[in-house]
Amino acid sequence: MRAAADMQGYVRSYVRPETPWDRITSGHPGSALLLRLLPFLLLGVTLPIALVTPVMVPYANYALVLLPAFTALVNGPIATATATLVVAALVSAGSGALGFLPYPESGWSDLAPIAFVGLLCTALAWIRNRIVMRLLDMTLVAETVQGAILPDLPERIGGARVAVAYRTAEGSPGLVGGDFYDVQDTEFGVRAVVGDVQGHDLATVHLTDSLLGTFRERALDDPDLATLAARMERRVRLHNRRHDEWSQTFATAALIEMTPGLDTVRVVLCGHPAPLLVRGSATPLSARPMPPLGLADFAVHRTEIREATLMPGDLVVAYSDGIAEARNAEGRTFPLIARVDAHVASGVRDPEQLHRKLKADFQGGGFVRTDDLTVLIIQVPRATGA
């Protein structure tokens, strides 16, 4: 359960708070509480000073009169009404009214405009809260739908251990972008896909969902990866039929199949980076690539299926170009193969641990995502007693 919660936090595309401003804009609980209390803190600082320092009286007057408005900006109607009552009580206790306090120098004539402004601010805060709650409800529905497109994968599928890292592009408001992935246990073995649809808009998410639906259905029945690739090619073509020439799109994909005994891996590449076979070190499972899905008319050769032998404990690492093309401030791209080799050499072969090590390398190196990022790690079970 904890791992699933951690993964959900990793899937989210929201900015990780690093500066005070980031913490405020991202809704960090501590910063949000400080922001809500700020109007009252401002009044609490200026009023005592005004009582002993006459030069601060004008500033305290501004803080007092504007307290309901400031409170309405960062709080709801209850806090705004409370602020209005506080101001009304201080005005009533002023030297020109009940005379309980030497400050403020207010009279009864000041109470009516203070009450009117306070009621207006309270009403505006209530309206704003209604709008915010509506937006939060819509966001929750959108996130639920997006989560259904790319649900969390179980730790084991068909006997193989699985871990996945997925992030949308930096600054993207959604949980699902152009990248997609899935792993299915079928009678032909464990089948997996990692792909990337061109673009980042809603049409991209629609095609992402369509391609995942096609993979999940046809992976159970199609006898080989070439046929499965042709099915997904047809899905992109059907999608493009509904768009004009300038709105048509394409997708890259790496299709992976591990035979029922998990002793052989097969790969078909449709314009996608080759997965890595990791034993002592990482070796790309390169095959003569086909054009991306949707562009099969430009193919000059038949689909090639790359096949390699698997050994107990081997890892297959499939990824999208988002991690390979990410750069840091020095302009260096993320050295995925080198980092995988280093971690495997240090004894890290568990998919979840490797994923976390790569995540730490990526964040620690200051690499910035300019595209969606996906890393899917599948491990062949170790031999009994190994």
What is the strand tally? 11
Order of helices and strands: HHHHHHHEEEEHHEEEEEEHHHE
Rg, please?
29 Å
> SS-based structural class?
alpha+beta
Descriptive terms for the model:
single chain; 386 residues; alpha+beta; Phosphatase 2c, domain 1; 2 domains; 12 helices; 45% helix; 17% strand
Structure, described:
This protein is an alpha+beta fold and 386 residues long. It folds into two domains: 2-145, no CATH class; 153-379, Phosphatase 2c, domain 1, CATH 3.60.40.10. The chain is built from twelve helices and eleven strands. The strands form two sheets. Strands 1-2-11-10-7-8 form a six-stranded antiparallel sheet. Strand 5 (251-258) and strand 6 form a beta hairpin. Helix 3 (29-52) packs antiparallel against helix 5 and helix 11 (336-345) packs across helix 12 (351-364). It is elongated, with a radius of gyration of 29 Å.
Give the arrangement of secondary structure elements.
Elements: H1 2-11, H2 20-25, H3 29-52, H4 57-65, H5 67-74, H6 77-92, H7 111-149, E1 156-157, E2 160-167, E3 179-186, E4 189-197, H8 202-218, H9 225-241, E5 251-258, E6 264-270, E7 276-278, E8 282-284, E9 306-309, E10 315-319, H10 321-324, H11 336-345, H12 351-364, E11 373-379
Antiparallel strand pairs: 1-2, 2-11, 3-4, 4-5, 5-6, 6-9, 7-8, 7-10, 10-11
